[in-house]
Write a structure and sequence with these properties.
heterodimer; A: mainly alpha; two-stranded antiparallel ribbon; B: 429 residues; Rossmann fold; 2 domains; 6-stranded mixed β-sheet; 4-stranded antiparallel β-sheet; 27% helix; binds iron/sulfur cluster
Chain lengths: 313, 429
């Protein structure tokens, strides 16, 4: 029996969490938001989500086969990327567009960089950014809730000056909280997003640093530099509309593309918040969450270089 | 530092038992840090008695080794060794005709008549080494090159599964305190601290006592520490007790502290009060696959197979056998390896308890960084190691790593971080 003994370096016990279980739990935590999206936008949203997931898994499998590396489809990270991509799309996009986005996310943003753990940019957001650049019309066609007519997001209406003030929107905070507004599939139902985020925070899978900094900065700056002059902005509207909650809790917390330390993550969140605010206020797009995260993704190596834990010596 | 699952319930309530006398022991010539014993004082065929010195080194820092049973020297040859893989050992076959030696207690007055030099000499000749795992010869640590003001008795026993120190504290309180008294006398320290984790209420109760025999000048204080890993690591312990940090590359005496483990203090007691050399020790033989895990008093040189047999039967095939605790212990190739002076436990893990070992790409989750008690960035060290950038590893502080294992323990990607660190350390040195 001697030769059956396993010999390896210490430690010999291991915390139970592993890559696949973490990815699974993040995916799981996103389910409520998906249900919210389907409830609000109808079955079409479900088809988009399914297309996102299935195409991401297929591309991951094909590329790993082609690269001759170990197929890691089972680690759920491709499912997660597909899911997040579809959550970041308006409910009226054609299904082929979803598949194209998936391809960009998996093939270019993830596998071309060497696969999970080596990608610099959040794959789902790269996919979305590509679609936004290539087919802007599709990407701005937001459906109204419970309606087939295309509508616009509250942020877009505000930006284009179609409404002068928020009161004209005829949306209460409660509507915004439940997601009864135009927007991307997975971003609208704040309630559902918070349920998932709460689960991940409790399980200590994500840390609160980046989301907290992100949301506070966007909220505070929108309040200070508001529509109606200094300190006349609407903190709650700024937080509840657009993709901030989805982005802050589920994309600004992605391990691979955010800093290693908690302090670094806080700085990352601050940066995302600032850039989001600037884009929303002065930029060409009504929403800046995805771009802010992508820009900050690029800054991560720098943050990690200068923010190191305090040595115990 | 973090809380990790303890598994101490398997043995923490079990009183220390004597392991059956082995028929044969294999006493390795190297059981300590320092020069291996090269002057062998017995030859094959010689009759030896329990406690008889077998070998010393002709120079350098070393600890002599002693016979742990009475019998005949059967061979002197290479034999499996729990730390070195293989090393020269003296095999002794027990001879029932030869009686086991006894070591009667000396009187207090006899002990108190000994001066510091004599005490150190007895401790040196008894072959005592740090029994918490480091195995550094104890008399050296009792001869600090500059005066120290504090002594800490390390009763943290923070490794999961191990309970031998805790049992020793409960059952041999007076002896340990006498050992502490000797240490305090030799070091001439103002403060004596007994540091115990709060998961050992029974032991804590035993040590809530004001004075120590033989060292009236020392102030005695018990420090109850939070149960966290690696609370018992020397640098962490000194910080928890005294809020002093040992700088990189320095030793505890540089900040005026000496730390000894509970088992070492007990061995010192036995050496001084009974003139008994270190040839047996208490250790925990444990694991959920053993029918009867136990805290055992074992002769040095006993092959662990004997202990496993004694604590069996096995409920399942062991997948891993570890000498020491699960966080820092060493996995063994075979059950032939003997118990040595620094063996604090033998742990058997079944198939389902063994950490999966397939390494994946670093997820950058940051857990290893959050948990590293030395404030290092294990993920970055591990990355430097995988592309063999030893300079970078050194810059990242790899030499300060205490190999506590928390980084690899918490890594969801199963990165073999500690293995890489050990490799880097040998490359750099
Ligand atoms: S790097 Fe060293 S000190 Fe830090 S957690 Fe890992 S083993 Fe422990
Ligand atoms: S714990 Fe493992 S996966 Fe996480 S950052 Fe450290 S090395 Fe990477």
């Amino acid at each position: 029996m001697a030769n059956k003994l396993m010999v390896s370096t210490s430690p010999h016990i291991h915390r139970r969490e592993n890559t696949a279980s973490i990815m699974r739990q993040v995916t799981f935590a996103l389910i409520p938001a998906g249900i919210g999206g389907v409830w609000i936008f109808g079955l079409r949203a479900l088809f988009i989500i399914l297309t996102g997931i299935v195409s991401a898994v297929i591309f991951e499998w094909l590329i790993q086969k082609a690269r001759g590396v170990k197929v890691t489809v089972l680690d759920t990270s491709a499912i997660l990327s597909g899911l997040l991509l579809s959550y970041n799309l308006p409910p009226a996009v054609p299904l082929w567009l979803v598949a194209v986005g998936s391809f960009v996310a998996i093939a270019i943003a993830k596998q071309a960089f060497g696969g999970l753990g080596r990608n610099i940019f959040n794959p789902a957001l790269v996919g979305r950014a590509f679609l936004l650049a290539a087919w802007p019309a599709y990407m701005a066609a937001f459906a109204k809730p419970f309606d087939v007519i295309a509508g616009a997001t509250p942020l877009a209406l505000l930006k284009e000056g179609k409404i002068a003030e928020l009161a004209q929107l005829d949306l209460s905070y409660q509507d915004l909280f439940l997601g009864l507004r135009g927007g991307c599939i997975g971003e609208v139902c704040i309630l559902a997003l918070l349920i998932g985020a709460g689960y991940l925070l409790l399980r200590r899978i994500i840390s609160y640093h980046a989301p907290l900094a992100f949301i506070l900065v966007v909220g505070l700056f929108s309040w200070v530099f508001g529509q109606d002059g200094f300190f006349g902005g609407d903190f709650i509207f700024a937080v509840l509309s657009g993709g901030l909650v989805l982005g802050a809790f589920f994309m600004a917390t992605d391990y691979v593309t955010t800093p290693l330390t908690t302090k670094g993550r806080f700085i990352f969140g601050l940066g995302c918040g600032l850039i989001t605010f600037v884009i929303r206020k002065w930029g060409g797009y009504p929403e800046g969450v995805s771009y802010s995260i992508l820009i900050m993704n690029a800054v991560v190596p720098l943050i990690d270089r200068y923010i190191r834990p305090k040595r115990f010596i | 530092m973090i809380v990790i699952s303890e598994h101490k319930e398997l043995t923490e309530k079990l009183a220390i038992k004597d392991a059956p006398l082995p028929d044969r022991v294999f006493v390795p010539l190297s059981q300590h840090l320092g020069k291996s014993c090269n002057v062998i004082e017995v030859k094959v065929g010689d009759a030896v008695k329990t406690g008889q010195r077998l070998a010393i080194a002709d120079a350098g820092i070393f600890a002599p080794v002693h016979a742990s049973i009475s019998g005949r020297v059967e061979s002197i040859a290479e034999y499996p060794h729990p730390v070195l893989g293989k090393a020269k050992a003296i095999a002794i076959e027990r001879d029932a005709a030869l009686s086991e030696e006894t070591f009667p207690l000396k009187s207090e007055s006899e002990v108190s008549a000994l001066n510091i030099e004599e005490l150190r000499k007895i401790i040196q000749e008894a072959g005592i080494v740090g029994m918490g795992g480091a195995a550094f010869p104890t008399f050296v640590k009792l001869t600090p090159p500059k005066p120290v003001d504090s002594f800490i008795l390390n009763g943290a026993e923070c490794e999961p599964y191990l309970t031998a120190d805790a049992r020793l504290m409960i059952e041999e309180r007076d002896a340990i305190l006498k050992g502490v008294g000797i240490i305090a006398k030799i070091l001439n320290v103002k403060n004596v601290y007994v540091a115990i984790e709060d998961n050992k209420p029974e032991a804590i109760k035993k040590f809530e006592r004001p004075a120590i025999a033989g060292a009236p000048n020392s102030k005695f204080e018990i420090k109850i520490l939070k149960t966290m890993y690696p609370q018992g690591a020397e640098k962490q312990l000194i910080y928890s007790v005294l809020k002093r940090k040992v700088p990189s590359g320095k030793l505890p005496f540089d900040v005026g502290v000496v730390v000894h483990n509970v088992a070492t203090a007990f061995a010192i007691y036995e050496a001084i009060y009974k003139r008994k050399p270190l040839f047996e020790r208490v250790l925990t033989v444990t694991g959920s696959i053993l029918a009867n895990p136990a805290n055992l008093r074992v002769k040095i040189g006993t092959p662990i197979a004997k202990l496993i047999e004694f604590c069996g039967p096995l409920k399942k095939e062991p997948k891993k056998i570890i000498m020491g605790g699960p966080m820092m212990g060493l996995a063994q190739f075979s059950q032939d390896v003997p118990v040595i002076k620094s063996t604090s436990g033998v742990l058997l893990l079944g198939e389902d308890e063994v950490a999966e070992s397939e390494e994946e790409a670093c997820l950058r989750c940051g857990e290893c960084i959050k948990n590293c008690p030395m404030g290092l960035s294990p993920a970055l060290i591990s990355a430097a190691v995988s592309c063999e950038k030893w300079d970078l590893a050194k810059l990242s502080g790899v030499l300060d790593c205490i190999e506590c294992g928390l980084c690899a323990y918490s890594c969801p990607a199963n990165r073999n971080i500690v293995q890489g660190i050990k490799q880097a350390k040998t490359k750099i040195r």
